[in-house]
Amino acid sequence: MALSLVPFDNRDGWIWMDGEFVAWREAKVHVLTHALHYASCVFEGERLYDGEIFELRQHTERLFRSAEILDFKLPYSVEDIDRACLETAARMGMPDAYVRPLAWRGAEQMGVSAPNSQIHVAVASWAWPSYYDPEQKMKGVRLGRARYRRPSPETAPTNSKAAGLYMICTLSKHAAEREGYADALMLDWRGYVAEATGANVFFVRDGQIHTPTPDCFLDGITRRTVIGLAKARGLEVIERHIQEAELPSFSECFITGTAAEVTPVSEIGEFRYRPADISRALVEDYGRLVRRG
Hints:
D-amino Acid Aminotransferase, Chain A, domain 2; nine-stranded mixed β-sheet; 7 helices; alpha+beta
């Protein structure tokens, strides 16, 4: 059976959990774990390239910030989690992989309020194929429109990478896939263009790059990296609120994220884009950077 078809609870390997390695199949939590009922969980998604985790420290520091926003304290240091990520990746023995550290409230208390629940931390790593169809990637993936919108910072902790914030992403991506799309474009609560369900979005017009201001969604680590690569090429990057009505005025579109890396977009609903020089150049620049080649 192909690895992608093997359930995630029935694989070989090791997971770092609360300070020690446990066999993959034994890394379990109780059904009354607070995080399962009330989404008190934060996580990171990291990529291992040629045995090195790209921007590991940035990811770990964001994990700690997310935990603080969700009102809990990780019982380890940043250095401890960096080391756990590296040791987990090394123990799994894959030079290229995905690395997932996460932290959550345990089962000591059940109810909305659970300030005395134990905080657990785990790190897992596994093989990660292309997030989108690799044969389709450079042709550009197709995005539909999401029904749900990114919430206001006044209604949710939008500057955290919290598990609960991804519920509407799952619903939106499922709906898009049923309609034959690879993903969905989400607007924010004001109606401005926000992001895809798990990636930031960029547009090109007249040689300039435009990207939404990340004021109600994560300012992704890959997003910031790609902005730096674009500026190194002398390209102007404009961060601003983008109206949905502007979508037909752009010539190129691409999305960025740890999973998506840099992926051109060929259409958003009825609007068409052509992956061209800028998109292709940034795909290549990012690939060279993460592999230090």
